[in-house]
Amino acid sequence: MTATAVRDETTKESRTMKVESFLGRHAALMPTFAALAILLLLFAGAEAFLRGDFITPRNISALLLDNAYLLVLAVGMTFVILTGGIDLSVGSVMAFTGILGAKLLADGLPVVIAVPAIILGGALIGLVIGVLVQYFNVQPFIASLAGLFLARGLAFVVSLSSIKVEEPAILWLQSTRITVGSWYITPTGIIALLAVAVAAFVLHLTRFGRTVYAIGGSESSARLMGLNVARTKVAVYVISGLCAGLAGLILTAYSGAGYPRNGIGTELDAIAAVVIGGTLLTGGRGYVVGSMVGVFVYGTIKTIISFMGAEQSWMQIIVGALLLLFIVVQRAIVARSEGRR
Amino acid sequence: MTADTVVPPIVEMTGITIRFPGVLALDKVDFTLRPGEVHALMGENGAGKSTLIKALTGVYTIDEGTIVVDGRQQSFSTAGDAQAAGISTVYQEVNLCENLTVGENVMLGHEPRRGSVIDWRRTHAEARKHLVSLGLAIDPRSSLASHSIAIQQLVAISRAMVLEAKVLVLDEPTSSLDRGEVELLFRVVRDLRDRGVAILFVSHFLDQVYEIADRITVLRNGALVGEYPIAELPRDALVTKMIGRELEDLATLSSSAHREIDRSGAPVVKATGLGKRGILEPADLEVYPGEVVGLAGLLGSGRTELVRLLYGADRADEGEIELHGAPAKIHSPLHAIGRRISFSSENRREEGVVSDLTVAENIVLGMQARQGWARRLRRSEKDAVVTGWIEALGVRPANPNALVGNLSGGNQQKVLLARWLATAPELLVLDEPTRGIDVGAKADIQKKVSELSADGLSVIFISSELEEVLRLAQRIVVMRDRRKIGELESASTDLDGLIDYIANEGEGSAA
């Protein structure tokens, strides 16, 4: 009997050790799981509150459609934040590339020129920010703030008012609905999901991606380990700019027009989604899939509030509260991993 | 020493010169390293060891001289260049990424790939292979942060093995390891040596150097003293070569250690049972007027922690403090300054000088803190104080408007000392005031401390250099493992006695 008791004890011990080693290995996943839990909670809560009217194929499909541009922005932002940087320019860059594309199309240029111009325009602004950060040692906050003003200014230079897009190829991105039963997905949604998949691939299965994480963990270590820190840091801003350009394309398709005042404050929405998705603002920890969850949390809150007919200001209050919660959770995780040594 | 003649050197550095603003960090230093040897680089703080290492590992660019690695002349501009040439470095502060797994840290940048896709299974298998070859049976998928510093250091060495390093530089790898961990590290080092890796070993522990090294190069003040096979350089000869001129310089200093202290009155400060959970076990400390009390013990023994509690920089959770016999509470550094206690931190750059301010601005900071921010100090008063202290301490350049960031370490330390002396303290706490500064400045600072204490200033003096503590302090408080283990009168002990006490004084027998 004592022997069994002892064996019980040891199995229990090894079980807790297993749990602990699992938690130890996957501590960085916890905030992402938390975000997922919150998303499910929101779904369940809204479903209960609206008596089964919320979780419908139409609503869920619309969630992706309405937030495709934000998802793409969040993907780019995840790269930057993982290195410990920040990119405040993406909202403005999205507006600039959007209005630029609309203008080029309105001037009669073909889609094969306008679309690459949209995307490369964003990448170019990202390149400028990256070079400022890396080679001129400017704080990412300041460099991307400069990018924010520059891109917004350029947007107004292109046009002061909205330009309608009538190009069928662009509108096709939005209007095409690939349906399965009452579920549907638009090409814009597919682009956004592809962006997530490509980003996840790059971050987890390429040396470039691992260098991004290493820089976020410790930039000086990464440098001393002989990794190419300079190239990687510039590249993350280029990727963020590229994504902002892509988001510009998606938003233009979504709204059927370019508008220079689009996306004011959207960079903050993207940052919020990334943080809610479990990426540490100090860098080195987080997942692009988490950012996707973050975007869906954000989008769901917005949908619920419009369903309830409540003031949109509640949106910001709830997102603010969630951010606060997540930052505290992240601090706790960091403190725990520091305390373990 | 078969390596002597048979094997050609793998690293040949000739005439290496590096200049920093205002300082000649390395002056035409030669250094050679052969495969299959452990070569110790020795020298006091500021002798140029780190600078030489950083020149070899591509962190600093050399101003003059040549580096030949494996028969090829090299000019490194990044750490990556040096690694590509087969030189890997393990630093004192482990330079790995704690957010990643052990295996990733080992393989980062060299992961096996299929096309451009990392093959994680093979990555971890290879990492495991390298870890095991160093006798490390840890899970490559575990997070690096979950391992001790010693293990992390071995992980860093495994990484060097992945790079197939021909030269392994170990920069103070043992300073935060315990005895067992050092053994583990040394076993690995010997093994690598036998495999033909050239190892450059830097440590301030003489015992360890004599345990592991085959050859010693000694640097002093940025210049080469010489290269010796270990058998031809007994310990005392090594120490003399390391400190050389300093002995002469400092020998002329009148030792203040034998001055009689009147301990009949009330102590300037008396702490009883001062402690903080997890930081410092309760300790007693008293300092009488005109007394220099030394705090001796290894790095991390609780020396700094004790004085930070006393100064109010950290909050004690038990114990009492009396000032001149009257109970007092010290809540914050500002509070302490008001009670005429000043503290000069060991972190000169982070907690000491403000690099972007001038010498004069740095000096008046302490006075201004004492005065309160709202009351202006008169300009003429400031100028008088500043020029007075610059002269008294011999700050070079003697320019009150020079930016402190451009001064040498020794002069920054003098500025810091001036700042606190300008507050006219009764008790001055100096934490490692002479670390990493040149001999001249060191002598100046010791002389000043000695003079001021003779005039009645009480001083708590913390230093890793025990000779210095023995020379200055009348009484020495010995710390170990975050605990005060006892007190010694300087007059009744010598260096060996003190070292023995720090190392061996047993449990319970402490005062």
TrEMBL record, chain A:
Pfam families: BPD_transp_2. It is found in: Cell membrane. It is a multi-pass membrane protein. The chain crosses the membrane at residues 27-50, 62-82, 113-135, 141-163, 183-203, 234-254, 287-308, 314-334. The keyword Cell membrane applies. Its main location: membrane. InterPro entries: ABC_transp_permease. Keywords: Cell membrane, Membrane, Transmembrane, Transmembrane helix. PANTHER family: ABC TRANSPORTER PERMEASE PROTEIN YPHD-RELATED-RELATED (PTHR32196), INNER MEMBRANE ABC TRANSPORTER PERMEASE PROTEIN YJFF (PTHR32196:SF63). This is Sugar ABC transporter permease YjfF. It comes from Demequina zhanjiangensis.
Automatic annotation (TrEMBL), chain B:
Signal peptide: none annotated. Coiled coil: none annotated. The keyword Repeat applies. One of its GO terms (molecular function) is ATP binding. This is Sugar ABC transporter ATP-binding protein. Keywords: ATP-binding, Nucleotide-binding, Repeat, Transport. Residues 11-246, 263-506 form the ABC transporter domain. It comes from the Bacteria. The keyword Nucleotide-binding applies. It holds the Pfam family ABC_tran. InterPro entries: AAA+_ATPase, ABC_carbohydrate_import_ATPase, ABC_transporter-like_ATP-bd, ABC_transporter-like_CS, P-loop_NTPase.
